[in-house]
Amino acid sequence: MYDEENMIWDENPSFPKGKSVTGKNKPYSLYEELKQKLDVSNYTGDNYDKEKFAICNELYSQLLSEDCANEDKLKLLRNQAIDRLNVKFSSEHLYEKLTEFCNPNQFKQPYNKEIIDLCNECYDYIHKNKDDVLKLEEIEKLDTYKTLCDCKKEYEEKQRAETERRKKEEILRRKNLEERRQKEYEQEIIDKDTREGAAVLCIIIIIIMVALWVIARNE
């Protein structure tokens, strides 16, 4: 189902929505998958099995009485179906979610060797159990996974703090730049006024000197 050699880590990781058993572009729904797997028609015709037919009828009736949003109860029904009917449930949605969660590209800026080592350990477990939804769900019990969750949370908090620090620095830089530009502008106005005042004073002096020269000559 999955090709490890062609696995490409997304440079901009995000949690993808799992593929639905009823449509490729719909989020995965355990309720919908249970409705399919517990349909009594799965054990009619050439596949007829009296015991499994009865089990499906029992579990399907329970399913219809459950809240479709109650994941815990739905998982209990799923586990019964796995044990009693030996059916296999989709793991692709959870596999994709976990591999994205352990994507090492999230921890390259800045680079964190310890967290990436944890990603490697978790991904090893995820890949080995990629077709077993129960095993994939049990990853939350692993110490390595718990440590990765804690480290990831701390790493993201540091990233947010660093982003906030850089944002404040940028705001301060822009403020200082604006203030410097304003001072330069004001200084240009002062220099311009000074130059214009000096020019006017020179003209006045010249006029006075010319006037004195004319008066002296007439005398």
Describe the fold and architecture.
The protein has 219 residues and is an all-alpha fold. The protein is rod-shaped. α1 (30-37) runs parallel beside α3 (71-85), α2 (50-65) packs antiparallel against α3 (71-85) and α5 crosses α7. Mean pLDDT is 85; it is low at 1-23. The protein is built from 7 helices and no strands. 67% of the residues lie in helices and 0% in strands. The longest helix is centred in the C-terminal third of the chain and has 76 residues, at 143-218.
Quick recap:
The protein has seven helices and no strands. The chain has helices at residues 30-37, 50-65, 71-85, 92-101, 113-128, 133-137, 143-218.
**Helical element count?**
7
Total E-strand runs: 0
**Termini, distance in Å?**
117 Å
The main pleated sheet reads as: none
Give the radius of gyration.
38 Å
Q: What is the overall shape?
A: rod-shaped
Order of helices and strands: HHHHHHH
Which terms would index this structure?
219 residues; mainly alpha
SSE layout and pairing:
Layout (H helix, E strand, L loop, with lengths): L29 H8 L12 H16 L5 H15 L6 H10 L11 H16 L4 H5 L5 H76 L1
